[in-house]
Design a protein that fits this description.
Keywords: Coiled coil
Order of helices and strands: H
Radius of gyration: 41 Å
Helix content: over 70%
Shape: rod-shaped
Number of domains: 1
Number of helices: 1
Largest sheet: none
Number of strands: 0
Distance between the termini: 140 Å
Amino acid sequence: MNANEKTLSLFTTRVRQMILQYQEMKQENDGLYEMVDEQNAKIKELEAQLEQAKQNYNSLKMARMIQISNVDMDVAKKKLSKLIRDVNKCITLLSGK
């Protein structure tokens, strides 16, 4: 083999190696893109779950506030009833004199 044939053979070998390396890198790149797509899908799913959890929390908070309002309403009714009874007692006492 002369120098040109050796150089050509070496060049051909290097080109084949580069093609193989390119194919490997392309496969790796495709795999990485697939992983990114999976992670993006997972992020969207988690964001949807977070939004649903926020809505549930707000609903529960509102229900709790309504429940507290109902309890406060019951307490207020009891106090008002007691005040009315006290006023009625006072009226009865004043009427009796």
